[in-house]
Design goal:
The strands form 4 sheets. Strands 1-2-5-6-7-8 form a 6-stranded mixed β-sheet, covered by helices on one side. Helix 2 packs across helix 8. The chain has a domain of 182 residues: Penicillin Amidohydrolase, domain 1. Strand 10 and strand 11 form a beta hairpin. The chain is 38% helix and 21% strand. With 374 residues, it is an alpha+beta fold.
Length: 374
């Protein structure tokens, strides 16, 4: 009898310990949904979550709304945001180990972090302001929740570094990479053509004429004269890969001159797909061909290559990949006038020209779109 009671007591202690651990690691980091939080905003603001957990932010200024958008997104999606910027920059190995070195090496060849840094230098100050306010909101959450960050950070035993405007640009560039990458298909077509099997090429990569229906996102709009309410209807379905959590984060932002709701991209301020009091909008992928591969006559020992009969010198970008539990791995990237050398096979060196690398500057019109009236 005594042994039985002792076992019950031990089991009870173990159960309580398990519940305590579950609360500490999983429940405690969940978003605060009631009470008062002191934050560096200019005036009092409110955040109300509906039955679906969607945050409704009401602020006294656009600046406070941008700050609070960063804060509530970090509440819900901080680890996703950190993973996204690492995925975009080729920095997963730093927290996940050597199993991700190959993926990071491939990503580093795209030079997205350098591209984001270049975009930061050239983007309009007004656009940069909104990204900086959003980053400040994210960082306010990080600093006020040290020791009670999302479960993934505890499991992987690391803490996120502060969020920056460059990180937001990386989030945008990763989405752009997802929607515009076509160079791998071009390589595959060339490989098949070298084998002389034109039939397979045409079967696997059929030519599309202008009138053909293509796969991808869709958007439907119906004029008000055809609806029961007399109001126009817009249905938009951006086709992206399934992910958990979702690619998008639902939010409602309200401030003087702003009343917008819809889907935001974690890492970027304001609503990408949604509606305000006056208009609604959606996005689709037009599948433009914005990538080209150039076969360079290239000497990898010296970085010299031929362009129109003249010898030119490629630029060497020395990338170092931090690896958890291991030594850093060097991933040098040669960059020609066409772009970075992304693939070497059969003695051929292929450089990628991609519009994302163009030095035209980056603009972020989403805040203005969110306030548009027509």
């Amino acid at each position: 009898m005594l042994l039985r009671w002792a076992l019950r007591a031990v089991n009870a202690v173990i159960a309580l310990a398990a519940l305590g651990a579950a609360w500490w690691f999983a429940w405690r980091p969940l978003p605060q949904t009631s009470g008062v939080v002191r934050l560096p905003v200019a005036q009092k603001a409110t955040v109300v979550r509906d039955e679906r957990g969607v945050p409704h932010v009401r602020a006294a200024s656009l600046e406070d709304a941008a700050f609070l958008h960063g804060y509530v997104t970090a509440q819900d999606r901080l680890w996703q945001m950190d993973a996204l910027r690492r995925l975009a920059a080729g920095e997963l190995s730093e927290v996940l180990g050597d199993g991700f070195v190959e993926a990071d090496t491939e990503t580093r060849r795209l030079l997205l972090r350098r591209t984001a840094q270049d975009q930061l230098r050239t983007m309009p100050a007004g656009d940069r302001k909104w990204l900086a306010l959003y980053a400040a909101g994210v960082n306010s959450y990080i600093e006020s929740h040290r020791g009670k960050l999302p479960l993934e950070f505890s499991l992987l035993q690391y803490e996120p570094r502060p969020w920056t405007v460059v990180d937001s640009l990386l989030a945008a560039l990763h989405m752009y990479r997802t929607l515009t990458t076509s160079w791998r298909d071009e390589v595959q077509r060339v490989r098949l053509l070298r084998g002389g099997d034109m039939r397979k090429v045409r079967e696997l990569f059929p030519a599309r004429m202008g009138g053909d229906v293509q796969p991808g996102s869709n958007a439907w709009v119906v004029a008000g004269r055809r609806t029961a309410s007399g109001k126009p209807l817009l249905a938009n379905d951006p086709h992206l890969e399934f992910s958990f959590p979702s690619t998008w984060h639902m939010v409602h932002l309200e401030a003087p001159g702003l009343n917008v709701a819809g889907a935001a991209l974690p890492g970027l301020p304001f609503v990408i797909v949604g509606h305000n009091e006056h208009i609604a909008w959606g996005v689709t992928n037009l599948q433009f061909d914005v990538q080209d591969l150039y076969i360079e006559q290239f000497d990898p020992a010296t970085g010299r290559y031929l362009f129109r009969g003249q010898v030119e010198q490629a630029r060497l970008e020395r990338e170092f990949i931090a690896v958890r539990g291991g030594k850093p791995v060097e991933a040098p990237v040669w960059v020609t006038r066409h772009g970075p050398v992304v693939l070497t096979e059969g003695g051929r060196h292929l450089a990628l020209r991609w519009i994302a690398h163009a030095p035209d500057g980056f603009e972020y019109p989403i805040p203005r779109l969110n306030q548009a009236t027509n």
